[in-house]
Every structure is written in structure tokens, then in C-alpha cells.
Amino acid sequence: MTKMIVRVLGFLVAAVMITAVGGFSYLYLRKPAMAQAPAVKVDITPARLARGQYLYNLADCDGCHSLRDFTRFDGPVVESGRGAGTVFPPEMGLPGVVAAHNITPDKETGIGNWTDGEKIRAIREGISRDGTALFPMMGYQRFRHMSDEDVFSLVAYLNTMAAIRNVVPRSRVAFPVSLLIKSAPQPAGHVPEPDRSNKVKYGEYLVTLAGCMECHTPARQGQPLQGMTLAGGQEFRFPGAVVVSANITPSLQTGIGRWSEQNFLDRFYEYKGYAEDGPPHVGAESFTVMPWLSFSRLPPEDLKAIYAFLRTRQAIYHVVDSHPVWQAQRDSVKPRG
Ligand code: HEC
Ligand code: HEC
After folding, report:
1. Which of 94, 129, 236, 329 could form a disulfide bond with 98, CB atoms 3.0-4.6 angstroms apart?
2. Model's pTM, two decimal places?
3. CB of 211 closer than 6 A to ligand 2?
4. What is the Cα–Cα distance from 145 to 106, expressed in whole angstroms?
């Protein structure tokens, strides 16, 4: 998740290169763009809870906010730490210390005392309860496109999660990124329901919320590489492990161009058993951050819509090795001569 976050800041970093001292004091004093938290109280209905749980899974909130067991394939959630927050390890190369907060309804250590409007604003607009800008690793720049009804459902679900007492320190984002992130929040306004009758459009909505672009587009110095959208090659470093995202453009040789819709579905449903019964213990050579466990729970219509959208993207020839270190280590232990 390292570069994905920094990537989001790319344009801001570029902006600062040409900013003089005056610019810095401007940034220092300025407040992020911010709207009043909406005055809504979300009604909890069975339909909303189901949709909310679905969105929580699609957007992989667990991926960052929950305790995970990385000795097992894909780091399944440890139930006693679901939503309880975590501090990211230094290996991820984040600027400063970044923590994903406790988002359970615990009143003291979680968001149990927040109004529903404050939760909605944090999720879609990147403003914490105290009015500060959230570090954009939190996916608010994509959650901004979440429809009003969907964010209500998500909040309904968050409100019914088990409250877990767990103190997570506030993030301490390093200078100058701490100033730059103030430009990231943006009011979301009213967001209409996605058009479900248009398969490709709905696929785009799902891809946006699921963060496929953020992980599957390579970046350099925080900037997504031009013409490389979805072409893979972004590295994710964890203690003792690394994985590189795959090329999921329709490239015939290097992407998923030869995959039929059924191949695509099969690839995700391969992990259904793991999601249901718990994945096996694996070594660092199988380390991945691709949310296979979450996405294997998506219904076939959704995966078909995602596939349909991906097929409309530009095919990019780009060879990626998803497990480079292990490849290198295997090569280096081969007998010489
Ligand atoms: C890629 C990692 C990532 C994902 C995925 C993610 N978050 Fe976050 N979230 C963060 C980080 C990091 C922060 C803290 C940012 C900071 O400290 O500035 C955060 C902050 C928050 C906050 C504000 C908490 C506070 O005390 O200010 C809320 C609420 C939240 N996330 C909810 C969610 C929900 C709901 C989802 C799923 C829809 C989600 N997040 C998905 C990383 C993530
Ligand atoms: C948190 C980062 C992350 C997100 C979000 C993510 N991916 Fe991935 N994905 C990866 C990584 C890393 C790999 C390579 C390792 C692996 O296969 O597990 C991968 C592999 C894949 C593969 C396998 C390709 C192959 O050649 O076998 C497919 C297909 C895929 N992702 C599709 C998607 C789609 C579609 C989405 C959005 C719905 C998505 N990914 C979201 C990180 C991510």
C-alpha cells in the first residue's frame, strides 16, 4: 500500500517543488476544503445492513483497519481485532508514522461518539472529526464517488460492528507531506445512485470503490505513470516480504487479454474456500495484498461488471513479476556452472 498512497499525493508534491517560502506559510496556515458534516441520522434497516457489509467488503476497510494474520495466505482478519485499527510498519515506507484508526463503535477509543454525518464526511471527504485532513492512504478520494444511499448503508453497518476497545495513536505524518495533504480533502456533495443497467458503468463504480486503479497502476515518486493505468508493477513492501501488482489491462501477452469472463470469475472464486474456512499458513513467497479473500465473496454479476469495465481499458504491454525477491533468491541458490 506504500506507493499507492504516496501516488495520490503526486500532484501535490510536484506543486511544492515550485513553491517558495511564501507558499509554505500559506499551506501551513490554510485549512483543508471542508463542508459542515451532514446532519443525518442513518436509519438501520436489514437491507442497509446487508448492503453496508457488502460495501465494507468491496472497499476492503478491513485491509487497513483490522488486525490481520499475515502468517496465513492474504492476511485474513483476526475477528477480535476487526475494525480496531493498526499502526503501519516502517517497512511500508510511509512518510512518518501512519495509523489507521479504530473505526468500531467503541465510545472512547473508536468512533462511537461521532455523529453519522461526521463518519460520512471522514469516509467520503477526508476530514476527521476535529476538522483535520486525513492522510489520503485512507481512500476518500475514491470513496467520494460512493452514492449517498451507499454511504448511509456503510455507516449503518459500521454502527452495528462489535465495539472493540483499542487505543490507536493519531498518525504523525512527516513534513512536508503533512502540509500537502491539506489539499486532498474535497466536499462530496450529493452523489446519485450508480446506473446498474449499464454493465460497464457499474463495473467502473465497483472498480473505483475497490481501489483496483490505486494498486494496479505503477507510480514513480508518487506520480501514477502516464499511459500505465492498470498495467501493474507497483511494489508493496511488508516486513520480510514484497509483492508486485499484476498487469490487468487487456494486453494479450502480458495482461488478462486472453482471459474469458469465466477465467476471470474462476480466478477470484479459487479463494472462496479460503474465505469461508480460513486460508492456510504460507511463507513470504506467497505474500500478497490483493484482497482475494474479500473479492471472492463478490457475486458473479459484480465480477462480470468489473470484467466488462476492464475489457474497455487500453491494453498495455508490460511484463510484471509479482514475486521478484523470491525469484531472485531461487536464482541465486542455483548451482553455478
Ligand atoms: C488503504 C488503507 C485504508 C483503507 C482501505 C481504508 N482506510 Fe480508513 N483510514 C486509513 C488511514 C491510514 C486512516 C488515518 C489517516 C490519518 O491518520 O490521517 C484512516 C482513517 C479513517 C477514518 C477516520 C478516523 C479518525 O479517527 O479520524 C474513518 C472513519 C475511516 N478511515 C473509515 C474507513 C472505512 C469505512 C473504510 C472502508 C470503506 C476505510 N476506512 C478504508 C486507511 C484506510
Ligand atoms: C491493495 C492492493 C490491491 C487492490 C486494491 C487490488 N489488487 Fe489486484 N493484485 C494486487 C497484487 C499485489 C497482485 C499480485 C499478487 C497476486 O496475484 O496475489 C494482484 C493480482 C491481481 C490479479 C491476478 C492477475 C494474474 O495475472 O494472475 C487480478 C485479476 C487482479 N489483481 C484484479 C484486481 C481487481 C479487478 C481489483 C479491483 C476490484 C484489484 N485487483 C484490486 C493488488 C491489489
Report:
1. 94
2. 0.92
3. yes
4. 27
